[in-house]
Design brief:
The protein is of the alpha+beta class. The protein is about 20% helix and about 30% strand. Strand 6 and strand 7 form a beta hairpin.
Length: about 180
Protein backbone atom coordinates (compact mmCIF):
# COMPACT_ATOMS: atom_id res chain seq x y z
CA UNK A 1 0.00 0.00 0.00
CA UNK A 2 2.89 2.39 0.54
CA UNK A 3 4.04 2.25 -3.09
CA UNK A 4 0.97 4.02 -4.59
CA UNK A 5 1.32 6.87 -2.07
CA UNK A 6 5.04 7.19 -2.84
CA UNK A 7 4.38 7.16 -6.59
CA UNK A 8 1.64 9.80 -6.16
CA UNK A 9 3.94 12.02 -4.07
CA UNK A 10 6.73 11.73 -6.66
CA UNK A 11 4.25 12.48 -9.47
CA UNK A 12 2.89 15.55 -7.70
CA UNK A 13 6.44 16.77 -7.05
CA UNK A 14 7.42 16.20 -10.70
CA UNK A 15 4.37 18.12 -11.95
CA UNK A 16 5.04 20.98 -9.51
CA UNK A 17 8.69 21.24 -10.55
CA UNK A 18 7.72 21.10 -14.23
CA UNK A 19 5.16 23.91 -13.83
CA UNK A 20 7.68 26.02 -11.91
CA UNK A 21 10.34 25.57 -14.62
CA UNK A 22 7.75 26.27 -17.33
CA UNK A 23 6.64 29.49 -15.62
CA UNK A 24 10.28 30.68 -15.39
CA UNK A 25 10.72 29.91 -19.08
CA UNK A 26 7.60 31.90 -19.91
CA UNK A 27 8.76 34.90 -17.86
CA UNK A 28 12.18 34.86 -19.53
CA UNK A 29 10.45 34.89 -22.93
CA UNK A 30 8.18 37.76 -21.86
CA UNK A 31 5.01 35.72 -21.38
CA UNK A 32 2.80 35.92 -18.31
CA UNK A 33 0.19 33.37 -17.31
CA UNK A 34 -2.90 34.95 -15.76
CA UNK A 35 -4.92 32.56 -13.62
CA UNK A 36 -6.99 35.17 -11.76
CA UNK A 37 -10.55 36.20 -12.68
CA UNK A 38 -9.56 39.89 -12.86
CA UNK A 39 -8.65 39.51 -16.55
CA UNK A 40 -9.39 36.77 -19.04
CA UNK A 41 -7.47 33.65 -17.98
CA UNK A 42 -4.62 32.82 -20.32
CA UNK A 43 -1.28 33.90 -21.73
CA UNK A 44 -0.12 37.51 -22.10
CA UNK A 45 2.99 38.65 -24.00
CA UNK A 46 5.08 41.71 -23.16
CA UNK A 47 4.85 44.24 -26.02
CA UNK A 48 6.64 47.50 -26.75
CA UNK A 49 3.58 49.73 -26.83
CA UNK A 50 2.61 52.93 -25.02
CA UNK A 51 0.42 52.83 -21.92
CA UNK A 52 -3.01 53.91 -23.17
CA UNK A 53 -6.60 53.46 -21.99
CA UNK A 54 -7.69 49.91 -22.71
CA UNK A 55 -4.16 48.45 -22.56
CA UNK A 56 -3.24 45.66 -20.17
CA UNK A 57 -0.23 46.32 -17.95
CA UNK A 58 1.93 44.42 -15.48
CA UNK A 59 2.83 46.49 -12.43
CA UNK A 60 4.59 46.24 -9.11
CA UNK A 61 2.25 47.47 -6.37
CA UNK A 62 3.56 50.33 -4.26
CA UNK A 63 4.76 49.24 -0.84
CA UNK A 64 2.04 50.30 1.62
CA UNK A 65 -0.40 48.97 4.24
CA UNK A 66 -3.17 48.26 1.69
CA UNK A 67 -0.93 45.97 -0.35
CA UNK A 68 0.52 44.41 2.82
CA UNK A 69 -3.06 43.53 3.79
CA UNK A 70 -3.73 42.21 0.27
CA UNK A 71 -0.67 39.95 0.43
CA UNK A 72 -1.53 38.76 3.96
CA UNK A 73 -5.07 37.88 2.86
CA UNK A 74 -3.83 36.25 -0.40
CA UNK A 75 -5.61 38.76 -2.66
CA UNK A 76 -2.24 39.11 -4.38
CA UNK A 77 0.61 36.65 -4.66
CA UNK A 78 4.03 37.07 -3.13
CA UNK A 79 6.80 37.88 -5.59
CA UNK A 80 9.87 39.87 -6.53
CA UNK A 81 8.43 43.40 -6.32
CA UNK A 82 9.39 45.65 -3.38
CA UNK A 83 7.51 44.54 -0.27
CA UNK A 84 7.60 40.94 -1.49
CA UNK A 85 4.55 41.51 -3.73
CA UNK A 86 3.99 39.75 -7.02
CA UNK A 87 3.38 41.58 -10.28
CA UNK A 88 -0.28 42.32 -10.99
CA UNK A 89 -1.98 42.44 -14.37
CA UNK A 90 -4.76 44.99 -14.80
CA UNK A 91 -6.37 47.06 -17.53
CA UNK A 92 -5.85 50.81 -17.89
CA UNK A 93 -9.14 52.71 -17.59
CA UNK A 94 -7.90 56.29 -17.13
CA UNK A 95 -4.74 58.27 -17.75
CA UNK A 96 -3.46 61.84 -17.95
CA UNK A 97 -6.27 64.39 -18.24
CA UNK A 98 -9.09 62.01 -17.32
CA UNK A 99 -11.38 62.94 -14.43
CA UNK A 100 -11.76 60.06 -11.97
CA UNK A 101 -14.18 59.65 -9.10
CA UNK A 102 -14.05 56.64 -6.74
CA UNK A 103 -16.64 56.01 -4.04
CA UNK A 104 -18.80 53.13 -2.78
CA UNK A 105 -21.11 53.39 -5.81
CA UNK A 106 -18.17 52.66 -8.06
CA UNK A 107 -15.70 54.33 -10.35
CA UNK A 108 -16.56 57.08 -12.79
CA UNK A 109 -14.19 58.17 -15.57
CA UNK A 110 -15.09 61.44 -17.27
CA UNK A 111 -18.59 61.08 -15.83
CA UNK A 112 -19.14 57.52 -17.14
CA UNK A 113 -19.78 54.75 -14.56
CA UNK A 114 -17.53 51.75 -15.14
CA UNK A 115 -19.18 48.30 -15.06
CA UNK A 116 -18.50 46.05 -12.06
CA UNK A 117 -16.73 48.87 -10.18
CA UNK A 118 -18.86 49.24 -7.03
CA UNK A 119 -16.86 48.81 -3.83
CA UNK A 120 -17.62 45.91 -1.54
CA UNK A 121 -17.46 46.55 2.20
CA UNK A 122 -16.11 43.06 3.00
CA UNK A 123 -14.39 40.19 1.21
CA UNK A 124 -15.81 36.65 0.86
CA UNK A 125 -14.54 35.79 4.37
CA UNK A 126 -16.13 38.85 5.98
CA UNK A 127 -12.90 40.86 6.35
CA UNK A 128 -13.47 44.61 5.89
CA UNK A 129 -12.12 46.10 2.66
CA UNK A 130 -10.53 49.54 2.32
CA UNK A 131 -13.04 52.21 1.32
CA UNK A 132 -10.94 54.36 -0.99
CA UNK A 133 -12.26 57.76 -2.08
CA UNK A 134 -10.97 59.99 -4.87
CA UNK A 135 -12.05 62.94 -6.97
CA UNK A 136 -9.21 64.04 -9.27
CA UNK A 137 -7.94 64.85 -12.73
CA UNK A 138 -5.05 62.48 -13.45
CA UNK A 139 -1.60 63.86 -14.23
CA UNK A 140 1.02 62.45 -16.63
CA UNK A 141 2.32 59.94 -14.09
CA UNK A 142 -0.98 58.41 -12.86
CA UNK A 143 -3.11 55.52 -14.09
CA UNK A 144 -6.39 53.98 -13.02
CA UNK A 145 -6.01 50.17 -13.20
CA UNK A 146 -8.80 47.72 -12.61
CA UNK A 147 -10.93 44.83 -13.81
CA UNK A 148 -14.24 45.41 -15.52
CA UNK A 149 -14.88 41.65 -15.58
CA UNK A 150 -14.86 40.77 -11.90
CA UNK A 151 -16.91 42.77 -9.38
CA UNK A 152 -14.78 41.21 -6.60
CA UNK A 153 -11.39 42.09 -8.07
CA UNK A 154 -8.81 43.74 -5.82
CA UNK A 155 -8.11 46.84 -7.88
CA UNK A 156 -8.24 50.65 -7.98
CA UNK A 157 -11.52 50.77 -6.08
CA UNK A 158 -9.51 49.68 -3.01
CA UNK A 159 -5.96 50.96 -3.65
CA UNK A 160 -6.44 54.03 -5.84
CA UNK A 161 -4.17 55.25 -8.60
CA UNK A 162 -0.91 53.65 -9.68
CA UNK A 163 2.15 55.76 -10.51
CA UNK A 164 3.86 55.43 -13.90
CA UNK A 165 7.06 54.18 -12.28
CA UNK A 166 5.16 51.17 -10.85
CA UNK A 167 4.15 49.97 -14.35
CA UNK A 168 6.68 47.45 -15.62
CA UNK A 169 5.32 46.46 -19.03
CA UNK A 170 2.41 46.64 -21.39
CA UNK A 171 1.10 43.15 -22.14
CA UNK A 172 -1.23 41.85 -24.79
CA UNK A 173 -3.38 38.70 -24.55
CA UNK A 174 -2.16 36.02 -26.94
CA UNK A 175 -4.37 33.11 -25.87
CA UNK A 176 -7.22 33.41 -23.37
CA UNK A 177 -10.31 31.46 -22.42
CA UNK A 178 -13.36 31.92 -20.20
CA UNK A 179 -13.32 30.66 -16.64
Amino acid sequence: MKKPIKILAVSVLAVSVSLFVLSIGFQISGIYINTTPSLPVGFYKVVEEPIVSGAYVAFCPPQNVVFDMAKDRSYINPGDCPGGYGLLLKRVFAQSGDTVSIDQAGIFVNGEHLPNSAQLTADAEGHPLPQYRLEAVLDDAEYLLLSDLNPQSFDARYFGLIARDQVQQVVRPIFTWSH
